Amino acid sequence: MVTHDVYLKNFAHRVVYMRDGKISKDELIPTEVRKLAFSDLGERIEKQKRLVDTSISKHGNMYPSVDDDKKKDYVTEVRDPTDYKTFRPRPIREPAIINKLD
Asked: For residue 24, what are the contacts with CB-CB under 8 A and spacing of at least 6?
């Protein structure tokens, strides 16, 4: 998996951090941490399924409090590198001066 979302690292066996195309850090994720992450994900999925099932059984649709003509439009989320904790802006460098020999 390749991602910029550092919160997904607990699902991986190994995390390789890269900066400017080079490996800056290599981290192994313990088995216990992965198990907890997957367990938590499973619990959240089951909870969401129960909420949807309850909503459908009570109201006949997934949106009990919103009329069909008033449903929110879904918007694609666009992220910027500065949205992540690991982002460090590059320092501004002066252009190199090249001395030409005549």
From this structure: 17, 18
> pLDDT tens digit string along 25-57?
999 999 999 999 999 999 999 888 887 777 666
Q: Domain locations in the chain?
A: 6-66
Give which of 38, 37, 17 is closest to 27, Cα–Cα.
Answer: 17
Kindly tell me if the per-residue pLDDT of 79 is higher than 70.
yes
| 3-class state of residue 59 by DSSP | helix
Single-letter code of the amino acid located at 45: I
Place of tokens 């929110």: 72
As given in the structure block, the two tokens for residue 55 are 């909503």
